[in-house]
């Protein structure tokens, strides 16, 4: 019995962010590849087209003086557990969400800034 791609994707979707990071590191080590190199190759033509950007990354650059409020906002936006959200906030600058639409990125930025965080959209 083989495992389908959908089964693997569903299993990954149920993992915490930290577990996914560990999985990627294990895959890089086992297969001798780098996920960053694969992204660079796949996105190599990005500069060639002059199309408007449709996907944005929301980057948490700092948590300011209201760390607890920012952690709560991050948990609400990402669905992370308390420890994962706290670790993510404390490791700023860090990407919160990648490849989201402009409206969602702006909404997330607004919510995080209201909580006291500094946020950047790229």
From TrEMBL:
Residues 5-50 form the Large ribosomal subunit protein bL12 oligomerization domain. Residues 56-122 form the Large ribosomal subunit protein bL12 C-terminal domain. One of its GO terms (cellular component) is ribosome. Gene3D superfamilies: 3.30.1390.10, Single helix bin (1.20.5.710). InterPro entries: Ribosomal_bL12, Ribosomal_bL12_C, Ribosomal_bL12_C/ClpS-like, Ribosomal_bL12_oligo, Ribosomal_bL12_oligo_N_sf. Keywords: Ribonucleoprotein, Ribosomal protein. It comes from the Bacteria. Forms part of the ribosomal stalk which helps the ribosome interact with GTP-bound translation factors. Is thus essential for accurate translation. Homodimer. Part of the ribosomal stalk of the 50S ribosomal subunit. Forms a multimeric L10(L12)X complex, where L10 forms an elongated spine to which 2 to 4 L12 dimers bind in a sequential fashion. Binds GTP-bound translation factors. NCBIfam families: L12. Belongs to the bacterial ribosomal protein bL12 family. This is Large ribosomal subunit protein bL12. It comes from Thalassotalea castellviae.
